[in-house]
């Protein structure tokens, strides 16, 4: 049986960095962001549902999803954003679980990279959940630097998400990403050694 490790974090905590280190060790990664794009590709049931709900203005002339147009519709409207998430959730869940099953057949450790892991209830499918953690003030600083935005904008983005402190409380494993890249590499190496994946 494969071990399924869910990895999550919040904006600018460095989740991608951690997932990439696991990739470098050769473990299978199931990436929810990639799957989220796949479930709305042309001629998918997911895209059909989006068009039924938001109208054909969200389509490009080639039949693909016009992300910019859809983004404008949902960005300023929380209800519409929630409606879109609820609409795509079953397609996403089915595809994520299917990919985890397939990866389990070939890898002793499967990394499930899911940004909204707790919010969407994926923790029940995981053997353990690792949270990539940095304190909120550092999150704001890194986000300002990364996206070249003001402190106020960064704080707003951070506040719109499930709190990193709350995720930390619920985590089975915490990868603390406040220090250097070598520090986070060491934490992952130690965990892999301890769990006998290396």
From TrEMBL:
GO terms, molecular function: ATP binding; dephospho-CoA kinase activity
Positions contributing to ATP binding: 12-17
PROSITE patterns xref list: DPCK
Pathway where this protein functions: Cofactor biosynthesis; coenzyme A biosynthesis; CoA from (R)-pantothenate: step 5/5
Biological process according to GO: coenzyme A biosynthetic process
Matches recorded under Pfam families: CoaE
Assigned keywords, A-Z: ATP-binding, Coenzyme A biosynthesis, Cytoplasm, Kinase, Nucleotide-binding, Transferase
Assigned EC number: 2.7.1.24
Subcellular location: Cytoplasm
Enzyme class: transferase
Entry-linked SUPFAM superfamilies: P-loop containing nucleoside triphosphate hydrolases (SSF52540)
Keyword ATP-binding assigned: yes
Reaction(s) this enzyme catalyzes, per UniProt: 3'-dephospho-CoA + ATP = ADP + CoA + H(+)
Any single GO CC term annotated in Swiss-Prot or TrEMBL for this entry: cytoplasm
Described function: Catalyzes the phosphorylation of the 3'-hydroxyl group of dephosphocoenzyme A to form coenzyme A.
Family the UniProt entry places it in: Belongs to the CoaE family.
Name this polypeptide is given: Dephospho-CoA kinase
Organism: Tetragenococcus halophilus subsp. halophilus
